């Protein structure tokens, strides 16, 4: 059995309800998840002995942080809808052509409840004066012809993007998939190159991920700030006949791994078959593993089926594993072998009446 360890960070992808990719985080600085459940101890009798434990209030948290900023992260945290176009502050350097008047090239628009205002100052000066625009022009008492002034105003930009933060918001819910790298920690077996360091990933698939609704951003003069995209998994769907919902699916993906590497045996689900003439049954073969993996149904295309004893006068088996009873009563033994791992074999007994 190969050994490996987790290290570094992987990537994360977020999808909307229509399956569209919202973001692809390739520069994570933190990546992880935490699974927990609350418990109550059932104690009683002499010595307050522990008779059992009752578990409740499960949770699946995801902790991700991206070094690259993305407006989507902020909008998703507060359930905001990003719209194309937004108001920006624009600064122009203007040469005055008409005394007491400033004319700009852009299209000033209202700022807050102050009207269509702007501000002008002279280069290398810290003070500025407010002006009110009518169209592209604004009266500015005292400015002279050929003077250079710096003018700032609000203008709509079609290339900008913006969203609003409501006073009462609900964080967005998306489908999140992220990875955690796995690295080799085993000595290479004889015949293996053993040169690969990264050998696989854990893939964590969260069908219903809701952001935690918290944004705490700050930047420093000599540093950069990452963006938190953490949250919690919500119950989604059901698994099997239990009716219980699931939070996530965690898949181990080892590159190029033989699926039967840790299989130690194969068994036939129904190894004693009773058939009548022309009656058929498909053999189902399970692989058993030594690494804690539950038994799995093998594909019959990965197996060979042959009559080991009894001859084909009692029963026949084809390459798909379909057994057919013949007209001659008796018993036949079918031998099953794995094509990929010859040491894995099983037998089934067919009794035809």
What this model shows, in words?
The strands form five sheets. Strands 1, 2, 3, 4, 5, 12, 13, 14, 15 and 16 form a ten-stranded antiparallel sheet that branches. This protein has 353 residues and is mostly beta strands. The protein is elongated and about 115 Å long. It has one helix at 71-78, and strands at residues 4-6, 12-15, 21-25, 28-44, 49-66, 83-95, 101-103, 117-121, 129-134, 137-139, 148-162, 173-184, 198-211, 227-228, 231-233, 249-254, 263-268, 272-275, 280-282, 285-289, 296-297, 303-309, 315-317, 322-325, 330-338, 345-352. The protein is 2% helix and 51% strand. The mean pLDDT is 92. The chain is built from one helix and 26 strands.
Helix content: under 10%
Rg from alpha-carbon coordinates:
35 Å
Please work out how many helical segments DSSP would assign.
Answer: 1
Estimated structural class: mainly beta
Approximately how much beta-strand content do the residues carry? over 45%
Given the C-alpha coordinates, what overall shape results? Answer: elongated
Q: Could you list the spans in which at least 5 consecutive residues all have pLDDT below 50?
A: none
The string of secondary-structure elements, in order, is: EEEEEHEEEEEEEEEEEEEEEEEEEEE
Mean pLDDT: 92
- By DSSP, the count of extended strands is 26
**How does the major sheet shape up?**
10 strands, antiparallel
End-to-end separation: 45 Å
């Amino acid at each position: 059995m190969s050994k490996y360890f987790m290290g570094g960070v992987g990537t994360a992808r977020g999808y909307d309800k229509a399956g569209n990719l919202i973001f692809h985080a390739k520069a994570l600085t933190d990546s992880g998840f935490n699974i927990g459940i609350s418990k109550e101890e059932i104690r009683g009798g002499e010595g307050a002995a522990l008779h059992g434990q009752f578990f409740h209030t499960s949770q699946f948290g995801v902790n991700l942080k991206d070094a690259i900023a993305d407006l989507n992260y902020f909008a998703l945290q507060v359930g905001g809808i990003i719209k194309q176009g937004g108001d920006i502050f624009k600064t122009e350097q203007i040469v005055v052509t008409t005394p007491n008047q400033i004319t700009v090239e852009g299209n000033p628009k209202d700022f807050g409840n102050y009207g269509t205002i702007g501000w002008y100052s002279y280069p290398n000066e810290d003070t500025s004066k407010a002006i009110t625009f009518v169209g592209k022009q604004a009266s500015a008492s005292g400015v002279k012809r050929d003077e250079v002034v710096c003018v700032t105003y609000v203008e709509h930009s079609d290339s900008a993007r913006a969203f609003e933060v409501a006073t009462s918001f609900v964080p967005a819910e998306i489908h999140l998939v992220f990875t955690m790298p796995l690295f080799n920690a085993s000595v290479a077996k004889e015949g293996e190159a053993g040169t690969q360091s990264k050998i696989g990933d854990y893939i964590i698939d969260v069908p219903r991920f809701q952001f935690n609704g918290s944004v705490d951003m700050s930047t420093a003069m000599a540093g950069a700030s990452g963006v938190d995209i953490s949250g919690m998994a919500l119950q989604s769907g059901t698994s099997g006949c239990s009716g219980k919902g699931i939070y996530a699916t965690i898949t181990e993906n080892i590159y190029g791994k033989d699926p039967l590497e840790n299989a130690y045996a194969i068994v036939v689900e129904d190894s004693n078959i009773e058939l009548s003439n022309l009656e058929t049954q498909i053999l189902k073969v399970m692989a058993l593993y030594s690494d804690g993996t539950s038994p799995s149904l093998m594909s019959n295309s990965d197996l060979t089926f042959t009559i080991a004893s009894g001859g084909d006068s009692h029963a026949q088996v084809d390459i798909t594993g379909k057994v057919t009873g013949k007209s001659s009563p008796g018993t036949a033994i079918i031998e099953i072998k794995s094509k990929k791992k010859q040491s894995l074999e099983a037998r089934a007994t067919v009794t035809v009446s």
